[in-house]
Amino acid sequence: MTIAMKRSAALSRISPSATIAITQKARDLVAAGRTDIISLSIGEPDFDTPEHVADAARSAIASGKTKYPPVAGIPALKEAISAKFERDSGLRYASSETVVCSGAKQVISNALLATLNPGDEVLIPAPYWVSYPQLTQLCGAVPVFIETRIEDGFLLQPDALERAITPRTRWLMLNSPSNPSGAVLGADALASLAAVLLRHPHVWILSDDIYEHLVYGETQFATIAQVEPALRDRVLTVNGVSKAYAMTGWRIGYAGGPAPLVKAIELIQSQLTGGACSISQWAAVAALNGPQTELVAARESFRRRRDLVVGMLNDTPGLTCPTPHGAFYAYPSCASFIGRTAPSGKVIRTDEDFVAELLEQTGVAVVHGSAFGAGPNFRVSYAASVENLTEACRRIQQFCSLMQ
Ligand SMILES: Cc1ncc(COP(=O)(O)O)c(C=O)c1O
User: Fold this and answer.
1) 105 Cα–ligand 1 center, Å
2) Rounded CA separation 185/216 (Å)
3) Is 9-48+294-401 CATH 3.30.720.120?
4) Which of 137, 283, 297, 372 lies 20 to 30 Å from 168 when distance is taken between CA atoms?
5) Distance (Å, rounded) from C-alpha 81 to C-alpha 240?
6) How far apart are CA 333 and CA 351, in angstroms?
C-alpha cells in the first residue's frame, strides 16, 4: 500500500515554472528521437564563463578555500560588490549593507521570507519573471499584478502604480531590463515612479537588476536607489553574476540595501542554506574586479542577434514584435493567430496553444506569454547561435504562413 504524501499549505500555493516545463518538453522530444529541436526557451547566456574567472575558482580549490564561508559572504566579495555598486551606479553600500546569496533568486526569496506576512500585497508589473508571484505566494502573501501595455513598450506607468497601492502593499518588484519583455526603465521613467513611491512610505522596492549589463544603447541603464536617493532606505538593489558573466551554474547573487533588511536576509539564509559556495564566491570576486572586456563583447553579440530576431519576427505577417532594449528576450504578440487553425487542424485558442503547436510541428521551443502574465505573446530567448536563431525564425515564419 502506498501512503500519499501530505502536502504543506505552502507547497500547495506554488506551481512549477512554465519556462522549465517547456525546456523539459523540448529535451523529452530530443530524447524521444526528434533531431530538429531548437530550444529558445531558456534564460541563460550561451557563452562560456570567462577563463580568468574559472582560473580564480581553480586557485580557490587549490589553496583550500573550501570551508564554510561567512553566511553573508566572504569579505573580498563584499568589497568587490560595494566597489561595483559605486563604480556603476554611484551607490555607496557599506559591508553591513551587502549580502551574497546562492543566486539572485535566493536573495529575492530571502527578502520576501524575511518581510512578508499572510495577506500582505506585492505589486508585480506584468509581464513578469515567473518566480515573483510564486515566491510571494510561498510566503502566504498576495501578488497584485499591474498591467503594462505593448503601446507603452511594456513600461510601468506612474498612474497605474498609484492606483495599485493599498495599505497592505509591502513591496513593488521592479525588473529592468525586464524578463520577459526586454523593456528598460530609464532614469526619467524611474524618476516618475519614484515620485509616486515617495508619497507612500510603507512601500518598499525590490529592484532586480540582474540584466543590468545587457542594455543596447537606446536607453541607458539606471537603478531606482541611484535615481532617487530619498528612497535608498527602502530599496533592495539585487544583482548577480549569472547573466552578465555567463555564470548561471555558479549560483552567486547579491544585494545592497538598508542594514536591518540585509541582517534579516542573512538570518533567513543562515537557517536555510548558510553562505553561498566558497569557490563560486572567489570566482565572482574575479568577475567583478577583473577586466570587463568579455562583457562588452557579449553585449555586442546579443545586440546583433536581437536585431536579427526582431527583424525576422516583424517580417512575419501576423506577428508584431516591439524592439526590446535590454536582456536577451523578444516578446512578440501572436494575437492575430488566436481563433485560427494550424496546419494540423488544431484551432489556436491561446498563446499556450500557439507555442505547443509550434513546438510539435516545427521543433522550435518558445514560452507562451500567459506564463509571464501577459498575452497572447510568446517569449523568444535569443541567447542562441545565429545559425539556430535564423533557422528557428524561418520555421516560425513558415508556421505562421500556413495558418488558416
Ligand atoms: C528577472 C530575473 N531575476 C532573477 C533571476 C535569477 O538569477 P540567478 O541565476 O542569479 O538566481 C533570473 C533568472 O532567470 C531572472 O530572469
Assistant:
1) 6
2) 13
3) no
4) 372
5) 10
6) 9
Let me know: does 166 contact 132? Beta carbons within 8 Å: no
CA 35 – ligand 1 centroid, Å: 30
Question: What is 67-289's CATH topology?
Answer: Aspartate Aminotransferase; domain 2 (3.40.640)
CA–CA dist 303, 82 (Å, integer): 29
Query: How far apart are the CA of 352 and the centre of ligand 1, in A?
Result: 23
Residue 192 burial (C-beta neighbours within 10 Å; 0-12, 13-18, 19+): middle
Query: What is the predicted pLDDT for the residue at 209?
Result: 98
**Could you read off the pLDDT of 173-224 as tens digits, one per residue?**
999 999 999 999 999 999 999 999 999 999 999 999 999 999 997 789 999 9
Instruction: Name the stretches of the chain with pLDDT < 70.
Output: 1
Query: Counting Cβ atoms within 10 Å, is residue 218 exposed (0-12), middle (13-18) or buried (19+)?
Result: exposed
**Gyration radius of the chain's alpha carbons:** 21
Cβ-based burial of 174 (10 A; exposed 0-12, middle 13-18, buried ≥19): buried
Atom index in ligand 1 nearest the CA of residue 208 equals: 3
249 CA distance to ligand 1 middle (Å): 11
Domain range list for the chain = 9-48+294-401, 67-289
Say if residues 91 and 85 touch (Cβ distance below 8 Å).
Answer: yes
